[in-house]
Model the fold of this input.
Amino acid sequence: MKAINQFRNDFENTLNMSEGIIKNIRSKAFEKFISEKFPTRKDEYWKYSDPSSILKLDLNYNDSGILENGNYDIILSNGKIVKTTTKLKSGTIAEGLNNGSIPKNLLKNEKNPFLNLNNAFAINGCYLILDSEEKKDIKILNLISNDGRSQAIYPKLIIIAKENSDSTIFEEIKVKGTGTNFVNSVTDIIIENGANLEHIILDDFAKDTYNISNICVKQKKDSNFISHNFSVGKKLARRDYNIELVGTGANCDLYGLYFVEGNNHIDHHTTIEHKKEHCTSNEHYKGILSGKAVGVFNGRIHVHPKAQKTDAIQNNQNLLLTDDAIIHTKPELEIYADDVKCTHGATVGQLDDKALFYLRTRGLNQKSAQQLLMRAYVGEIIDHIGNRNIRSKIMDIVLNRLPKGD
Amino acid sequence: MLKITNLHASVEGTSILKGIDLEVKAGETHAIMGPNGSGKSTLAQVLAGHDDYEVDKGDISYLGKDLLELDVDERACEGIFLAFQYPVELPGVNNTYFLKSALNAQRKYRGETEIDAMEFMDLISDKIKLLNLKDSLLKRPVNEGFSGGEKKRNEIFQMAVLEPKLALLDETDSGLDIDALRVVAGGVNAMRNEHNATIIVTHYQRLLNYIVPDFVHVLVDGKIINSGDKTLALELEEKGYDKIIEESKG
Done:
């Protein structure tokens, strides 16, 4: 329980860094967090990923990260804005609340303790408004740096895509330095009527890192959200997508690719709430697991009674390169409307021996043949990225990261 | 080029090849004929190096090397090419990219420089025409959604690009209509010269009208029971396997 006391100390010591609305939000969020039990493996939602390992850590709040420049529009260093551009309507969360850019009820108390904990430390963070009818390409760097500490970091990003805007956001996570990191990040996204938003997250390898990441998306009428999530395993890596389709005709496409090796862990829980009629969702997640790694995929589709004519597709595929790698994959469909189309599928397998033999009879050695098949496997996800430059950058990085199979 | 001596091979403990002797010299084309289950395809797979097949006894010498000591890909790089009876579909693997990677792997093995995409396109343009391949097939994933004939033509196209020293054609005629058969045979014939050799594994004499062999061997129950020239294939077609088996016993 060491960490809980430290969360309290950190909270009390930093509360004066905020004032006004945000101070109030932080206090309520912390009360809510502390009043509820910290989750353990006994909770269904955390069955295969043990968050209580975080409680054993000796953690201290730290937002003094290194300064970094680079070809990005916004840079967050340990959760704090260190670069932004006047071309964009953005600023700190507190500013956004004060100037009315962010709806006050967005940072409300939640069921998920990690959302409350993140709100309790909403000291820094960044909001971004994508103006209506405009088209933007934005690059964000989310940098975690550590000079040997055991640190807790709470990156927070709020993105509001106004009516009929059409944007691509490429969010790169980079981890530098050494030490222990507990990174509890939250991205809140609101997509208003008729807006399109493509969101690409590229994760980074990190030692001794416990990452709990929540991406919460609210989609209004005829909006479109396309998500590409490239994640890698860590000591504990959990990334959840919570998508609410609250307007008719909204569509979301969730594409994901995860690699996990060694003794690392990766967990994705995705939830798509179909709340209104004529919404569509399409989810395709693929993983490559090696070593003694553990992967979890839980895909929940919840079709509410009003959500007639829902069309939901979900697919999770896993490639196990070693005998000791483990994947827990589970589709979870909860359907309360009677005129809907929902399909789901999950596969677990190895590289095809016949295909490997065929490639080798043409002169490719075992390793090259494996790489070629894995390239094809990941290509199916990467090919969906609309922006050609980002697509080829991601392809290069992903090919470099392909597990070696040991 | 290739010398097989007293080759015995089995799969999962079941003996399939029971003493094969065969010598193939550069410039020659050999046809191996036999009824279903006689071991024809096993012989082709063993030569290519498939590890489902256990070599229990015997030797295979290829260009002065002990073939059984070489891995599958080393054999390919040394010039052995197997045209599959059932070419494998590779979803997501672009046909052109695949073939360029294979060619470069072989060039690298031989100590030659790798070739780039432009040079590769020049190199394959004639061979595409030779095999009458549609451009679209080159852009598609390897064999995925190809018709039976397109798959076989794609095999021979790969062979034309990789220019093997020893080509093994495993039931290349199966599933081909007469026009496709002509195209495939034309491709194989265009590549034949005094430096390379071809082993054709087939059920029927039909293919041998188009690719005329120098030698025909009849394989029955894991052994070559009869060898001759191309007239043996015609005799087989006329009399059937049973008759030839009886005669060889007698």
